[in-house]
Structure prediction request, 507 residues.
Amino acid sequence: MKAMTRFFRSSWGILAILLFWQLWVGLSGVNSIVLPSPMGMLRSLAADPALYLSSTAQTVALAALGLVLGVALGTGLAVLTWFSRFLAGLLTPLGIIFASVPVVALIPVLARIFGYDMRTVLAIVVIICFFPAFVFTGAGLRALPPGSADLFRVLGASTWRRLVLLALPAAVPDWAVALRLAAANSILAAMVAEFLMGTSGLGYLFASARSDFDMEKALGASAIATVISVLSFLLASRFEGWAGRNWR
Amino acid sequence: MDTQPAIAVRGVTKRFRLDDGSEFTALDDISLSLAEGEFVTLLGPSGCGKSTILRLVAALEAPSAGTVLVEGKAPAELSRQHRLGVAFQDHALLPWLDVAANIALPFRVAGQKVDEARVAALIRLVGLAGFEKARPRQLSGGMRQRVAIARALVLKPDVLLLDEPFGALDAVTRRQMNIELQRIWTEQRTTTLLVTHDVGEALFLSDRIVVLSGRPGRVVRVVDVPFARPRDPAIMRSALFHEMSDDLTEALAPPAGAP
Prediction:
């Protein structure tokens, strides 16, 4: 009961909008191609759960794998730039250029390279997740507690121990911020790639439902994507809060 | 070998280049030496370059002219061998480590096995028993400085450098920390160079006080402190202490007519 009250208190705005939406569709009598109702969307979800489930599973798996690979790549390269000024000069502008090219423009190019299938979707997610990890980790490795750089010199620390005992732990809070940004974007990036390439997954489900004028199904697909994005954002926010409390 | 000083600073000048390209002399022809097991304080007004001397001995800066030798070698040699202990005004504790892990840090930096018994003994020595698992942000300013001092001592360094370690503390805590540092130091007798602008702190703690003038830093006076060790806090109320304190305060004040 208490949990219900809490849920209602924190999300009554969303519930009110859904209620208003349902009433509006019912009272105005517009058909479901113009504006599907929330109830209609739920009916569509209940009608074919297997279809939604398999599409969702594929998109989430791709987004998660892409997130892990992208963040690992970004973190790894950021550590390399920490080691060498030369690599920093080489990699930093490259990273910025790559992140500035719109994903929509990258997709056709990558599809030519990797083929019109899941590998391209994965590549897109990796690129989207790479950038925040690279930038934030790079900044975090240099955001040291006051006086600690001098301390490590006085203690005669090797470069390796300076990285492991000082720079990496100091980068954890910034790295957590990067993870939060990348986690929310990974689902979005996977869906955009699936949408544009039209092979499989939630993005494809949305695209094909839309072209069939099955707007209830299209809305169902986007509702699932929204819920997953919000959940991964909340999870990553939790981690960020924990990192901030324990590492700063 | 016996006559070789633990720390020898000979004719050191340090100039810094400012952003506008002009040069400014922080230290001018400074010479001083510390015998092994001696506690020497650099006393001077703020901005007199006393911290710069400490940074030169710690190999954090290089002199513009003159030489700095620690145990007859370049000062960087000592830190490379993990035999230097330093406590800064800025406690420089790592926020993600608890008290025990912060004190044990020098072991890990040196690639040595952490001597848990040594860490525990130091925690008791600085009066922090029961706070082993506390994080730096949960501690008061005085407690953080105790952790920093314990960390400086943990590897049993040959040389201890203290840069106004109690500068940010209130007068009461500072006095208490001085009494504790005196007790701790008496047990270890490590060669120590302390930087401070507090006359009472210098008198209570050191064997010898080197008074510096400001801009550029020059040695004005060297004063031997006669009080026998271990020192009782009561000496701070003695007539000699007050007399020397007045004398040093006067030596610190710039001559009349100076800007």
